[in-house]
Every structure is written in C-alpha cells, then in structure tokens.
C-alpha cells in the first residue's frame, strides 16, 4: 500500500460524528472523502450508547424545540452557548427524521410514529414536569445509528483506512493540510494530504479508573492538537453518569429511569425526592451523581461496605424491561449475576463524558483562541469537540444528537471549503514528529512499565479529580501528574515487532491520556466555583460574576497556560438550577 494519500476531505474517527461527516461530505459533487479510524468502524464507541436521541418531535406528548433549548442551557448550568443550543434543538429534529429515512429501526408507538420516552433534565414548559423526548431503538440506539451510517457511507463510496492511529496533524502557515497516521498492520507511517480535515475521534474517559468508556477512548486527538498549540476548552467539566454497574462501570442507560426506574439507598428510600422534588430520579446527571455520593458518604449506601446505591426496576412490568431495556438487563445478569426483573441492581457513578474538548465555532471550525481565530481547513465534531452545546453538564440523549447535528455540519462545511480551495504544500519532513514519538517509546530505557503508570493515573484521577474536588486534592493531583510524566519518559516497549504492535500503541495512548489529565486538573484547580459537573467542596456556590466564562487551556512548555472565552448569552438569564 502506498504511504502517501491525497483526499479532499479526511475524517479522523468512524463513530457517529465521523460517519455523519463523511456521508455529508461525500454527497458534495466532486469531493473525495476518506475516513481514518483506529478501530473497525462498527466497533466505535457510539455503538455503546443506549438510551436515545433527544428531539422535540412531540409524538407522545406536546413538545417544542424552544423547550429543548432551554433544558439544554439550564442543564449546562448556563455555561452553554445559547445560540448553539437553539440551533441544535431545531436541527436535531431534522436529523432524526433523516436517520429514519436512511432506515434506522426506531422503536415505534402503536400508531407507527417514532417512540419517545422521558430522560433526565428534559422537561415541558420550561421546567414544569418531565417530557417524553428521547427517540430510541430499544436500548441499542447508538448501535443502530452506527450500523445505519456505516451502510450509508459505503453506499456513498467513502474510503476507509481502518486500524490506523493518527499521531499528528499537519499545520503549515497556520492552516491544516492533513494528518500523519500509524498503520497497525504494518508498522508504517502514512501521510494523508487533505484540503479539509475533520476530527471526530471521541472522548478521553480512560484517564479514570471506573468508566463507561471503551479502552480506545484515550483522547488521542485532543492531545495531538494540544501539543500543536491549539487549546482545550472547558476540560474541567467531566460528567459522571449515575448508573454504572458497581465496580465495573458498564453503563445502565438513563432510559431505565425514563421507563420508571427508581434509585434507592440501603433503607429503600427514594432519596432523589429530597434533592430534586419535581423530577426526582430524572434530574440532570451531575445532580444525581452528587446525590448518590452524598447518600454513600452519610452512611446510607448499600452493601457490606456501604459504597453503592440500588437501581430498582422490580415494580416495572417484566415485558417492558425485557423488550425496551434488553441490553442492560443482560449486562446486570452477566456481570453481577443480578436479575433486574426481580432484584435491585448495585450501581455507582461512572466516568462517562467530556463536555469540553477542541474549541469550535457553531459551524464546527476549530478555533485557536478566545477571539475565535479559525484554523483554516480544520473541523471537529462529537465528544472530541466543544462548540459548547453541553456547557458544564450534558443532558442525557444530547450526545447522540450532538453527533448527528454537528457531524452533518462538519461534513457540509468541510466539503464546501475543500471545493473552494486548492491543496496547500505539506510541511518539510512532515513525519518527523510522529517518528520521534515512536522511536522514544521503542528505544526507551524500560525502567517504568506502561501498565503501572496507567493504573496509577486512573486511580489517582478517580481519587483526586472526580465527582468532588478540593484545592487540596487537585493540588495533590498536579504533583502526581508531574511525577507520572517524568516516569513516562523512562518507559520502554518490549515488543519490537512491526506488525500489530499493540504494546507500542498503548504506550503512545498513555502519553495522550497524561496530556488530557493535565489539562483537566489544571482547569479544575483554576476554576474556583461549583458549576454543573465541576463540584468544588471549598467553593460550593456557582459564581456567575467571576466565572461565567469558558476556560481555554494551552500547553506551555512543561506546564500550562490558561485563558478565557466569553459565554454566548441569549434570552435565558442564569438562574439557580431547581428541579
């Protein structure tokens, strides 16, 4: 295979956002499109998403995009850019119908419309009560989206480079002109020359010990752009999903609570009535996760060690559980030996989703500073990106909506840019940076083991920078990360082979994870307030006067530099979040 490639549009990542971008770019006349993925596309993490896509279709009860936009802004604790939320709430309706027309097998109402159910933080009439807004395909919605979009991409003649790890983006004269990727099958570096590059490579949850994220989610492209001088926006806001299987982190969809599931402490009390009296168990995820931790802390956790909460589905009709929630029922039976039809399921919060990421405009163009200076030829969509739809806390179902709305926008705008521009020159010695990364790992002294450093990173991040944070724990974690980065310089790789050297890839992924953790911890230490998923015990209140602004974290030598970007406000004034 040739190791130099040329396409008008290159998409990095083959999950929902990447496939949506590829499909819409490929429909632009005369535009060639290729997708580079570290996995086979249908193994991408979008396939693990269970609950649904939030869209105000109004198929079950009255609903409007304005209500959805308000819920998104309020759920994001008013750090959400309001123009983005309003655009999204309207466009996601169109995008859901487009998926239906592509053949996605949504669950149906008795009269044949797309079925909808309740989900956390989604309300009618600006917060009065919960509303059925989540469009779903049993509890396999993400899987169905991934399969449908992959089929469509094949139909549209998109070219796929599977099991290629992108190690660098190529910037020349301030413009993005492509990427460099490592081919797992041969150990060769490949240069991909492009007019437009779309980053859609997913999240970074593997920096935490208990996570719903697949092993591949190591924040590679967040780290790559961070090393190239582009900041990460709002990395301190990391969501912990309330219902992960105890000790394992495998996700049980919020759809379980949408179908009537109840959270109970060891006394059997439905404790969310005390924390969110109106919508109870369907409060936003950050509130539910904190409430669960408070119950555990105050001695009301279940089990021998009082360290988990129960999810109760036993009062729900068994047929509903088996047909609408088949996957999570199977997960509980396989991993914990618990039958949700008859027994309470042990759960705990699990690291789930990055609200922050590579900063973009509303049109997915990557920006390099608080003045919205665009990096020509570079786009980002999905969890890796931050147009600030999610603000300080993402509502359930808005991730799949994010993928299809912003993936589509990225494909359209990237193809339009590619059609109007010509290929720029590549940098001289464009593979040097990537080759040096590989050589350092292959030829390192081997005094430290990658697996041990990764374990220490995940455990320390779980202890010091997860649901609750203080100046003390975050300062401690800054020092831990310094030590881990020093230890990382002493790693080595035993496998010196060129074919399928997964040990080498894990070593490089650890370096990416360390960058992601560094940005998160410094931003969390810097933000002296509590907002959304960022909960500081030493600064318990939200402080709009000082902190109603986005964080931008830049790599600065061996340290970091922090700058800010204003929040785009609109008609919804910041108010206390009461549910």
Automatic annotation (TrEMBL):
The organism of origin for this protein: Truepera radiovictrix (strain DSM 17093 / CIP 108686 / LMG 22925 / RQ-24)
Gene3D superfamilies: FAD/NAD(P)-binding domain (3.50.50.60), Fumarate reductase/succinate dehydrogenase flavoprotein-like, C-terminal domain (1.20.58.100), succinate dehydrogenase protein domain (4.10.80.40), Succinate dehydrogenase/fumarate reductase flavoprotein, catalytic domain (3.90.700.10)
SUPFAM superfamilies according to UniProt: FAD/NAD(P)-binding domain, Succinate dehydrogenase/fumarate reductase flavoprotein C-terminal domain, Succinate dehydrogenase/fumarate reductase flavoprotein, catalytic domain
Binding-site positions, FAD: 13-18, 37-52, 220, 383, 399-400
Any one of the GO CC terms: plasma membrane
Pathway(s) per entry: Carbohydrate metabolism; tricarboxylic acid cycle; fumarate from succinate (bacterial route): step 1/1
Coiled-coil features, chain-numbered ranges: none
Modified residues annotated as Tele-8alpha-FAD histidine in this record: 45
GO MF, any single term: succinate dehydrogenase (quinone) activity
Protein name: Succinate dehydrogenase flavoprotein subunit
């Amino acid at each position: 295979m040739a190791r130099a490639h040329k396409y008008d549009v290159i998409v990095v990542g083959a999950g929902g956002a990447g496939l949506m971008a590829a499909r819409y770019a490929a429909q632009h006349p005369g535009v060639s499109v290729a997708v580079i993925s570290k996995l086979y596309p249908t193994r991408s993490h979008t396939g693990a998403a269970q609950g649904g896509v939030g869209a105000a279709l109004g198929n079950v009860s009255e609903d409007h995009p304005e209500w959805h936009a308000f819920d998104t802004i309020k759920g994001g604790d008013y750090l959400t850019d309001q123009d983005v939320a309003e655009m999204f709430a309207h466009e996601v309706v169109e995008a859901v119908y487009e998926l239906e027309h592509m053949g996605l097998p949504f669950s149906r109402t008795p009269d044949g419309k797309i079925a909808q159910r309740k989900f956390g933080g989604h309300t009618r009439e600006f917060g009065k009560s919960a509303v059925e807004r989540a469009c779903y395909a049993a509890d396999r919605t993400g899987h169905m989206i991934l399969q449908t979009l992959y089929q469509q991409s094949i139909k549209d003649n998109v070219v796929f480079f599977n099991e290629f790890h992108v190690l660098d983006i190529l910037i020349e004269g301030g413009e993005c002109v492509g990427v460099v990727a490592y081919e797992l099958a041969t150990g060769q570096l490949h240069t991909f020359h492009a007019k437009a590059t779309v980053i859609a490579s997913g999240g970074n949850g593997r920096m935490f010990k208990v996570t719903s994220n697949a092993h591949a989610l190591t924040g590679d492209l967040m780290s790559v752009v961070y090393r190239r001088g582009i900041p990460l926006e709002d990395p301190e806001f990391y969501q912990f999903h309330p219902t992960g299987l105890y000790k394992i982190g495998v996700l049980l969809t919020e759809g379980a609570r949408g179908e009537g599931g109840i959270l109970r402490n060891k006394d059997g009390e439905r404790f969310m009535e005390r924390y969110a009296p109106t919508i109870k168990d369907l409060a936003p995820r950050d509130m539910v996760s904190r409430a669960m931790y408070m119950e555990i802390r105050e001695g009301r956790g279940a089990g021998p060690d009082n360290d988990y909460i129960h999810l109760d589905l036993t009062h729900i009709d068994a047929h509903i559980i088996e047909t609408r929630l088949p996957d999570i029922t199977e997960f509980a039976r396989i991993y914990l030996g618990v039958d949700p039809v008859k027994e309470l399921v042990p759960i705990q919060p699990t690291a789930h989703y990055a609200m922050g990421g590579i900063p973009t405009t509303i049109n997915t163009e990557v920006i390099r500073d608080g003045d919205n200076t665009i990096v020509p030829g570079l786009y980002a969509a999905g969890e890796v990106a931050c147009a600030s739809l999610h603000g300080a806390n993402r509502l359930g179902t808005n991730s799949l909506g994010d993928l299809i709305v912003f993936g589509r926008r990225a494909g359209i705008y990237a193809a339009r840019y590619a059609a109007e521009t010509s290929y720029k020159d590549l940098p001289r010695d464009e593979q040097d940076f990537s080759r040096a990364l590989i050589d350092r790992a292959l030829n390192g002294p081997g005094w430290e083991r990658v697996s041990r450093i990764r374990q220490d990173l995940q455990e320390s991040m779980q202890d010091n920078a997860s649901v609750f944070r203080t100046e003390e724990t975050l300062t401690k974690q800054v020092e831990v990360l310094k030590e881990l980065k020093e230890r990382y310089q002493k790693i080595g790789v035993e496998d010196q082979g060129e074919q399928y050297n997964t040990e080498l890839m894990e070593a490089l992924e650890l370096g990416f994870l360390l960058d992601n953790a560094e940005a998160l911890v410094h931003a969390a230490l810097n933000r002296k307030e509590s907002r959304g998923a960022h909960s500081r015990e030493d600064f318990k209140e939200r402080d709009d006067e000082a902190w109603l602004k986005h964080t931008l974290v830049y790599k600065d030598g061996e340290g970091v530099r922090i700058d800010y970007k204003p929040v785009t406000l609109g008609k919804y004034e910041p108010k206390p979040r009461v549910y």
